[in-house]
Specification:
Blueprint (H helix, E strand, L loop, with lengths): L3 H47 L28 E6 L4 E4 L14 H7 L4 E6 L6 E9 L13 E8 L3 H9 L4 H37 L1 H6 L11 H37 L3 E5 L5 E4 L1 H7 L12 H5 L2 H13 L3 E9 L2 E11 L5 E7 L1 H37 L5 H34 L7 E4 H15 L6 E5 L5 E4 L1 H17 L6 E8 L2 E8 L37 H11 L3 E7 L3 E9 L2
Helix pairs in contact: 1-4, 4-6, 10-11, 11-14, 12-13, 13-14
Length: 598
Amino acid sequence: MKTVFGKSLLILGAAALGIFIFFAIALLVFMNSLYYETNRRNISETARLLLPFISAAFFSEEAADPEAPPLLPDDSIWRLTLIDASGAVLSDSRFDAASMENHASRPEVAAALAGTEGAALRQSDTAGVYNLYHALPVYKKDDDPKSGKPIGVMRLAMPVPGFRNRVAAAMLPNLYLPLLIIAAAIGAVYLFSRSLAKSFVRLEKLTRAVSSAPHTAIAGLSPVISVEDTEEFRTLESALREMAAELAGRISVARAEGARLEGILNGMKEAVFAMDDRLMLNLINPAARRLFSIPDEKETGTLCLLEAVHATELEYAARRVLENGKAEESEFRLSIDGTRRFFRVFTGPLSYGGVIIVLEDVSRVKRLEQIRKDFVANVSHELRTPIQLIKGYAETLLFMPPEDGDTLRRIITIIAKNAAVMENLTGDLLTLAALEHSGGGRLETEERSIRPLLEEALETAAFLAPEKKALVSIDCPAELSAKVHGALLTQAVINLLDNAVKYAASASKITVRAFTKGELVIEVEDNGAGIPPEHLDRLFERFYQAERSRARPRSPAGTGAGLGLAIVRHIALIHGGAAEAESSAGVGSVFRIRIPVL
């Protein structure tokens, strides 16, 4: 029985039965002891009363007369035996003395022959039943009991029934009483165990209610689940309800904290990983899952750090924190989806022995830093030459003015040309700054026909570079129109044409193409030498030039400093589109502007 009712019934029933048996046995032992003690006292007193009536004549030879009357009546419970000093039986009230053996070895007889009272309880060899014996020494009339020697022994005996017979005779008629007592005890134990079990069942229901819904256990279950009116159980019930109230409060606070923490983690753009001391992940925020393409079905607790990020650098950093117990902040360059990206990484210990890792993507910052460095270097490079030329020729005019008019005109032309280069560079920088500033605002656009804008760009490019004999054609439907900023779009196409003419051979073929394919697409395609693949991703960065090592003449349409394509990219961006380039070595290049059609 594994229930409280079964166990309590078994234990209490066994205890009640055991106590009853113990007291019954103790009572029987006591009664048996009392029985023997009472009979010993009776036989002792009876023997002392009979002794004066036993004269010394009984122990003479004449006393052994077979015709002598019996010492005691036949129906007496007592048995009287007279034994001489040698142990021979002289007379017995029950049996034939002549047939009885010598009794000198009997304990009670030996004690009486030694001058003391003797008593014994044993089975009689003659009668075959248990007898209680008491023997007294017999002296001559004139002998002193203290100094004289007994002339014989008077032994008194009485049969003693066995313990079982005595108990059966006393208990069997009244057996129904102990059985009734045992039944009453078992019934009382049953009722007590049943009541105890019911109280525990109610407490179990209350506990389950508390564990599943503490607020319900407090508010809604109070009148339904009630323990018996036992003081201890009422106290326990009260303690459980107080615990439920405190638990409900703590759960409410924990849920609020959990929701707050979840909201913070979900709103962070940084990737966050929390793990135990075995680097098994137990927290991954959504930014981390997006960054490392971790599926949602990959649950925490089944994923280690290395399996999730595939970066041994992060694993080494986490293990250093586990070894040292100190937080670290460092920068890593990781390869994610085939792209090398920069991260500022914080690794720190957790209170329960784990590690937290926070990754902040600083690739854009690094790129901006590189752009800033390139900007300073390129501006310095682009301005150094025209400034030095202007300074040199100005000093020549100042200190050694040429007398020849043609030389003077050539020097002034060079100064004017380099001043124009500086002016174009400054203008491009201002254009970029204006485009970047207007990128966050609202661009004023209108529905414009695209082909006239392309023709205008073609005429401007041909005017700015008349020395190039490129064959430029336009492929654009006359009915094609879109909502664009006409002047900016024309400037973007001029820059693309200028770039194509600048890096194309003379009499090369250039095609300007425009069409719609879910969006407005404008392409400038040339059949030049092409651009190496490693340069394509950076072509639209300011000051970046894939052909820096080649000696190319500066185009009047731009500075040659690598700002033209950057301007094209910004014009596409403020239209909500993008700029891209494709190229194949020895085949040519295609520069493309994509603008959404509203």
